[in-house]
Task: structure prediction
Amino acid sequence: MEDNELDFSPLVCVHLLAAKFAFIFLHVGFAFIAVLDGYLSTNALEGVLLSNIGQLVNLTRLDISSNKLHGSIPQSLWNLVNLGSLDLSNNSFNGLIPESLGQHVNMYHLDISSNKLDGIKFMEKGSRLIMPYLNLWYLNLSHNQISGSLPKYIGHIMPSLGDLYLGNNLLNGSIPISLCQSKFFTIDLSNNNLSGEIPNCWEDNQRLYEINLSSNKLEGTFPSSFGSLSSLLWLHLNNNSLKGELPGSLTNLKQLMILDLGDNQLSGNIPSSWTTYTFPSLHILRLRKNMLSGSIPSQICQLKLLKVLDLSLNKLEGSIPWCIGNLQGMTLGKSSYKVNGKQPHKLIAKAPSSVSINVPAPPGLWSNQDVTEVMKGMELEYTKILELVVNMDLSHNNLVGFIPNEITWLTGLHGLNLSKNQLKGEIPQMIGDMKSLESLDMSHNHLSGTIPNSMPYLTSLGHLNLSHNNLSGPIPKDNQFLTFNDPSIYAYNPYLCGSPLPNMCHTGEISHGTPESKGDEDDNEVEKVLFYFVIAVGFATGLWGFIGTLWLKKNWRHAYFRWVEDVADKIYVAFVIKVAKIKKKMMRNHVH
Ligand SMILES: *[C@@H]1O[C@H](CO)[C@@H](O)[C@H](O)[C@H]1NC(C)=O
Ligand SMILES: *[C@@H]1O[C@H](CO)[C@@H](O)[C@H](O)[C@H]1NC(C)=O
Ligand SMILES: *[C@@H]1O[C@H](CO)[C@@H](O)[C@H](O)[C@H]1NC(C)=O
Ligand SMILES: *[C@@H]1O[C@H](CO)[C@@H](O)[C@H](O)[C@H]1NC(C)=O
Ligand SMILES: *[C@@H]1O[C@H](CO)[C@@H](O)[C@H](O)[C@H]1NC(C)=O
Result:
């Protein structure tokens, strides 16, 4: 947050963001603070907070994030009745979050994320609600150790709340129905131990843009009422235990960009009703690691903005739809991610705390989104660069038939994984057109024919695997293929030949298997032996021809040694003269 975004009272405004040291020395002026290795001594800063901070009653904003503060959150913060924004994130505070904090009428931004807190006391007494956090917009308690279940009325007790971040805690129990009726923009309950079914009572509030329930123990089916959320941009339900079929009738998800249902137990077909009318904005469809069956519906080709299509690790059958090349979002030039408008949190931060929320649903922020994809053989979590990832993963299914030639139209693809299927036929000849490919895995299929000549021109390709097929002919030796030295990427293609495989190719004709290459090696051995023999013979005759004659013929021997002596004398004389000259020259230089 920048200062110019907030309207501060002129009385006291302490901004600690960059100048925590300055705050301590100038405004409070304690002398006992020790600075050790550039960090504030933990106890010292704590002492400050405990004893004196409560006196700064006019403080409107306090940021002491990223320190090494520990202990409980000081009760003295109660007194700061004008505090609007409090950031204690990235410390080691533990214990409960004081109840009193919630009574601050002016508090609109509370970030206590990344601490060791183990509880929050929401003011809920039976069904009677006291209204704390009256004006709270933003609550980030993620990355703590908060346990217990969510308050039943969580959707109501913070009437102004926009963003609720409770991810990476130890929350258990089920998701309260009241969440469906909340006015939230963001609901992040990811990485907890929540169980039970996701309530199916969602109503369009035209502001909810992000739901992240990933990595919990949620069961039941995909709630069909999610389909009514017209403002939803991101839906992460991955890594749960959802069962049943994918909903066929989703009518209102016109803005949805990410649908991540990976790592669940969903079954049945991919609905053919999922067309461009259902998901006109969908960029990422991740159904990886489920139990989906049936064939890939050709309607999927209508999803023009799709950048990531991950259907791997399912039980899909049938062939790859020929229309796959129509996925324009995976085509170079047309593959830039659509980013809607401004950042949501800027909007929220700007709003003065007393104004009730009436802004339209804030559009999404790609850089906060996060999806895990496997590329180059590694599982990678794409966060900051998610909008740059273009990937198709159909691996580990039961797909049959040919690889459609049209797949080579997808020139924007960075990763293509077709491995572990039953695909047959040849690798498309024009595969060299897929200029953006960095990772290509076609292993474990029944592909035949030769490696296309265009393939070495995939100059971005860093990871290739063609093993376990029936490819034949020579492995290209030019361009990008010079960088592939690992024989495992070609293994189990008995008719493939050339480096780095042990079987050589015959020029003119194609090598057929190992026995012939064995013959090649034997020929080589004989050649080598002959070569060394000839050298040895030459050496012997040469040397002994010379020494032998000297030994046998007395005259020649004398003549030879005389000549050697002469040469030695001449070299000695030349050397002495040269040395004398150099000496003279040096003397002259010395004189001048
Ligand atoms: C919430 O806190 C976590 C942990 O400090 C941080 O990584 C995340 O960016 C915060 N969320 C938002 C939306 O600011
Ligand atoms: C959703 O939650 C997971 C698990 O906590 C987290 O890694 C991811 O960053 C979250 N995604 C978004 C888009 O916030
Ligand atoms: C392709 O997918 C398979 C199975 O899902 C996986 O084992 C392999 O690592 C992936 N290949 C690459 C290059 O990421
Ligand atoms: C593998 O390829 C070879 C030669 O290209 C062919 O003769 C053979 O029938 C193929 N095997 C299978 C199982 O397709
Ligand atoms: C290629 O795939 C095979 C079979 O899945 C695997 O054994 C081998 O390690 C892979 N090679 C590389 C370089 O990933």
